[in-house]
């Protein structure tokens, strides 16, 4: 069984996945499943970032970043999108965010998260990664 979600859902889940991947130490079944998910997610995020950068290059004009931008973004190149291109660029990004991603990983059984402290928003962000029925292990 694969995990299916949009890039938008994946990006929204990443802060919580990163939090869990760096703080959860047991049960070992959860640690293992989280490591498999994180390993599967990385190439998809790299692919998304590559496509997003292509869109920036298509609709924007590159320029060197200011020191403040470089400190915040960690990138030497910033793209300025003109007002004439903004709507087209935003639509292209919206389409990219709606692309469905198939991850070769098993969803997390909800019971494995019983002892993990999560806010309602974190749980909502993780929803695509949580098995919706009890037969997923």
Give the secondary structure arrangement, pairings included.
Elements: E1 3-6, H1 7-23, H2 28-59, E2 60-64, H3 67-73, E3 77-81, H4 83-97, E4 100-103, H5 120-126
Antiparallel strand pairs: 1-4, 2-3
H and E string: EHHEHEHEH
Unreliable parts? none
Judging from the principal axes of the Cα atoms, what is the shape?
elongated
**Can you list the strand order of the major beta sheet?**
1-4
Biggest beta sheet summary: 2 strands, antiparallel
- The radius of gyration computed from the alpha-carbon positions, rounded to a whole number of angstroms, is 18 Å
Strand content: 5-15%
Say what oligomer this is: single chain
Helical run tally: 5
- Give the termini distance in whole angstroms: 10 Å
**Overall pLDDT score:** 91
Task: Work out the count of structural domains.
Answer: 1
Number of strands: 4
User: Percent of residues in helical segments?
Assistant: 55-70%
**Class based on secondary structure composition and strand pairing:** alpha+beta
Q: Which structural traits does this protein have?
A:
single chain; 137 residues; alpha+beta; two-stranded antiparallel sheet; 5 helices
Task: Kindly describe this structure.
There is one protein chain. This protein has 137 residues and is of the alpha+beta class. It has one domain (3-129). Helix content is 57%, strand content 13%. The chain contains five helices and four strands. It has helices spanning 7-23, 28-59, 67-73, 83-97, 120-126; strands spanning 3-6, 60-64, 77-81, 100-103. A two-stranded antiparallel sheet has the order 1-4. Strands 2-3 form a two-stranded antiparallel sheet. Helix 1 (7-23) packs across helix 2 and helix 1 (7-23) packs across helix 5. It is elongated, with a radius of gyration of 18 Å. The termini are close together. The model has no long low-confidence stretch (mean pLDDT 91).
């Amino acid at each position: 069984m694969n995990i299916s979600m949009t890039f938008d859902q994946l990006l929204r889940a990443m802060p919580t996945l990163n939090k869990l991947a760096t703080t959860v130490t047991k049960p070992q079944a959860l640690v293992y499943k989280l490591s498999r998910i994180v390993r599967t997610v990385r190439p998809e995020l790299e692919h998304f970032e590559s496509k997003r950068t292509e869109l920036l290059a298509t609709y924007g004009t590159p320029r060197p970043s200011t020191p403040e931008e470089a400190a915040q973004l960690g990138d030497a190149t910033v793209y300025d999108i003109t007002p004439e291109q903004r709507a087209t660029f935003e639509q292209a990004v919206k389409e990219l965010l709606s692309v469905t991603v198939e991850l070769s990983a098993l969803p997390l059984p909800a019971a494995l998260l019983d002892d993990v402290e999560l806010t309602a928003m974190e749980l909502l962000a993780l929803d695509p990664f949580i098995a919706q029925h009890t037969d997923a292990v």
